[in-house]
User: Fold this.
Amino acid sequence: MIPSDLVGPPPENTLVKVVDARARKYGDRAVMKHKVDGEWREVSWRQLCESFSSVARGLLQLGLGRGDSIAILSENRPEWAFADLGTFAMEGIVVPLYWTLTPVQIRYILEDCQAKAVFVSNEMYLDRILSIRKELPDLSRIVIFDPPSSGELPEGVLSLRELVDLGTKAPPEIWESMGRSIASGTGSDLATIIYTSGTTGEPKGVMLTHDNFLSNIRAVLEILHIGEEDSCLSFLPLSHVFERIAYYLFLYVGGVIHYAESVEKVVANLGEARPTILISVPRIYEKAYGKILDKVRQGSFVKRLIFVACLNVGQKVSQRFQNHRKLNRPLAWTHSVADKLVFSKLRETFGDNIRLMISGGAPLNKDLGEFFHAAGLLILEGYGLTETSPVISANLPEKLRFGSVGTPLPGVEVRIAEDGEILVRGPNVMKGYFHRPEETAEVLNGEGWLHTGDIGHIDADGFLVITDRKKSLIVTAGGKNVAPAAIENALTADKFINQAFAFGDGRKYISALVVPDWERLESYAKEHKITYSSVGDLCVNEEIIQFIRQRIDEALEHLAPFEQVKRFKLMEKEFSQEAGEVTPTLKLVRKEITRRYWRDLDSLYED
Assistant:
């Protein structure tokens, strides 16, 4: 902690000062919970502060110091926070790494940011670093959270326990040095370099300061009530700025962070942790929606009728709410009945304690938002970028419009350029791209306006609507501008379609690669006695193709004729992170998919 003889109550202008202040306030109260051998274990505020302080002193003992880049390659867990805050406490710069990155991708980032040390969670990630270590002359230290059972570690590698012990036994001058470093920190200090997922080229290091994060947190708290009584389940990668701001926000308000065991166990962990707030990307909500509908279809005819009737009531309530119209008595009564019969049971999917659901990282389908709202589960969609720390705008409980990303945060300015690009200015806008002044100048002008690369508009009521990425827009041979996201979102809203990639730049019409939901499609094939020996057979089965053709046409009937998918190809395998086809937040990497499947795409334009 900050030595009390150095300062009075320090200004909370850095993230580590915020955590230090909360540790003084909450002491032995739990700040984090995680599973160990099947049991939930607590980390108190006091333990958090002692742990990151020891990490900071240990790093100083190893010769690391102000301005050094220190990377973290780990899944979400308390030790991630120890390394993160410990780096801040010795005035270092945190560089988070996605755990899905290959050694080649990791080497590029560590080389670019000139990382001096890296934290890894286990032996698998240690091996990735060791395989490229000789190519990284700046990398002097590797710290592993869970060392191998043999206990033997290569030279230059030490366990987190050894680092903490080193920090605990540090001489008085190291303790004093760390305390003074924390106390002298300012909001303008560089906190982190986050490398973008690189959907359009090589990843760039986005430089964010402590003030970038803190201004964003304070702006969010001006419009949303989140406090010390709240808790969340952390399962999105902390290497992504969306989960990172949620983690800092909960530390700021004094809430409790539960760490999910894995993405596969999110549903089970929700029931155990019973968080009040769920922060997720749309894909998680889409999967929950699909499971809910499957359960309904498995029920009796009467139960299905009751569900549809209740959903209609809920949708009417949602529409009135969005239009700021009060409920009349008959509708209020029928809604209370619908809630008892259906909606209360649906809410159990997310735990019986959820009061707020937040969606970001990718577009949320409008119908999906209205469905959950009808069931009494409000999903607030927001919008942001790594370059904006990240939140730019958000829907609010009392100011809501599904299909939009809400209104700008307090202190954040948004305007639309002549070509439709969204421009942003505010204290949350990045410092720039690391060692890339020319590329920084391309997106950040002298007046502080950031060119987001997204296309959109602001409606008459001030809601921001995103249509697509500027570089993703398809210009057909006929000169029509088509937003592929609108097509892809409409298609993936269909329960039989898992992923979709729209294509057609410079072509006569729009085509698509479609990855079905194979579990549902195989069930359909069995019900209709369609014989097959593999999913590859179903990809070319005329009856299946006609069935999907009908689903596509129905999904896109609201779009213009030039936006319709004329031809498509069914794909056996999902687009994956491992293949570089989707980002960690499940956005399609258009350039890579086009490169990898160009033969399939070309075939859709052959006579």
The chain has three domains: 15-185, 279-470, 473-603.
